[in-house]
Amino acid sequence: MSSDLISDVPGTNPIILQNPPGGILTGNIVTLTCSVPGGNPLAILSWNCYGTKENNTVGNTASYTITTSVNKSFNNKICACTASHLISTYNPTVQHKLVVYYAPSDLPSIQQTPAGGIIAGHTVVLTCSVKGGNPLSILRWNCTGDMTNSTTDTTATYSVSFPVNKSHNKAICACSALHPDTSYTHVIEHSLDVYCKY
């Protein structure tokens, strides 16, 4: 009997590779490749995600790709590849989670504590924050002082505190917000009012 007539399942489950790897900037294209070697006949692969699909099977390896442009709604989306075979007991499904980088929709803001004019010798706290984005923005201050990072799951928050003197009157402290989506780069400024005792 010819060996071609003997059915056999692949020895492993499929694997999924992503190109480019890691987080994908919104608007960019990602390709997922599902592949599994071996079996007679080769496994038949299918995707549950929307995109341009292409059969890249070569030799003794079944391979099926899907290519799609992502937006922020794709973040944490699960794409699944299912392998089926003439021997129906072989039907594994493997999953892949997409991570999409997108900028915040809001601009950063600065809050001063205490508000208004500060008496020389007292301490002022400037808090820069911006909500949203994946990942959250990286915030930086151009003023020196004690820095505090109070970032939560949804909001990037970075504070600087320092005692003021009369030289700080009308001084400008700037907070810059940076993001992997380089179209989101913002700098906001805050002017200090210092009251002096003469």
Automatic annotation (TrEMBL):
Entry-linked InterPro entries: Ig-like_dom, Ig-like_dom_sf, Ig-like_fold
Ig-like domain segment(s): 14-99, 108-193
Name this polypeptide is given: Ig-like domain-containing protein
Organism: Mytilus coruscus
